[in-house]
Specification:
The protein has 420 residues and is of the alpha+beta class. The chain is 21% helix and 36% strand. It has three domains: 157 residues, ATPase, nucleotide binding domain (Nucleotidyltransferase, domain 5, 2-Layer Sandwich), CATH 3.30.420; 129 residues, Nucleotidyltransferase, domain 5; 111 residues, Substrate Binding Domain Of DNAk, Chain A, domain 1. The strands form six sheets. Strands 1, 2, 3, 4, 10 and 11 form a six-stranded mixed beta sheet that branches. A six-stranded mixed beta sheet has the order 16-15-12-13-14-17, with helices on both faces. A four-stranded antiparallel beta sheet has the order 19-18-21-22, with no helix packed on it.
Amino acid sequence: MDKSRKLIIGYDLCEDYSQISCYSYKTFEPITINPIEDDENTLIPTVLCEVSESRTWVYGKEALDCAKKGLGVLTDRLLHKLKHNEEVIIFGQRYSAVSLMEKFIRKTLMLVKNYFPTETITQIVITLHEMDPVIIEGVYEALYMLGIDKDRASIISHGSSFMYYALSQERELWLNDVGLFDFSEDGLSFYQISVNRRANPMIAGMEKKDFSETLNYSILSSKKVNKEYTFETIANTALYKQIISTLYFTGRGFQDNWAQDVIKGLCAGRRVFIGQNLYTKGACLAAKEISGDEKLNNIILLNNEMIVSSIGIKAYLDGISQEILLTNAAVPWYEVNKDIDVIPDEASDIEIVIRNIMTKEITRERIPLSNLPDRPNRMTRLNIDISCMDRSKFKLVISDMGFGDIYSATGKLAEYILEI
């Protein structure tokens, strides 16, 4: 595909504000889109408002102004509504949380038309602060309603966006570790990326430390707390004995330059960048990678939501005993959902193979095939289904699928919880 015709979008979808970036093949970097022409503010309030008179929907700052003037009904907390499957009734009409999300995404994506009036979306990556499976599925459903299926859409965490952004920069910026202080409405967090250059391919890992109990919006507004001293103490704790080349600062909590002197002190021997569009640009760079324009194909990105091992099953395929991959490593645990059908041939167990990409350790688990229906050999079809409970445990379910019209399925036979 001609790169000049590609439309690559990174979308930071948050409860308070959202941002959209598009990749420019002229400047070779993401461009963050302004919600209002000639306005320097790229933050879009994540709200909708149905106008009373016209019964049309507006979004963002226009929605806030409309509701403030009493000209319509405001709908906010769209991600909360998705998570709890909440409905709203406006002017007698019932709206599901997914339909509201679809309206917001559709209207905000119209901003892209000002930059790319004729192109169709090649790839969109939406990045979220909270990677709740219900929210993720709701956003995917909203995108599907817009005609954007999973072959053109992905959802990643803020942590993953940071990794894509940081590692897409000049190599000298990540010669050593890279850090990010994120001060959002949920409080202060610190992310640290470490790259193992001796591995082939290289492995980039990430750790997150939560300091929200110590520094958050309420503490920030308190006159009883020395916020500069508190932040400086946190920063020194997080960076103690760490060799970090580059530091990033993002989040509306850093507005008004109250931390300027502390940040200046952290600049000694490091490169420092401050901005509010890191996640949307990171999502855009992720979309570029997924679309086939790979820059990070020699690095495995492994954040704190991803499993560190691949999972396979030993079976005969085409007359040869081989290991069939069920899921790769470096996949978010909540995306692991794979199954395979097998026909036991005088087998009393199945062999699961777990390969840790960090330690290179291989674990083989033999799972007994118990409670099998009494049938002739090779006349039972079993479904082996795996899904992760978190990044360190996965669930394996064995179900009897019967055998065509000859034998009926009896359903689930066994369930096991295994360490990854």
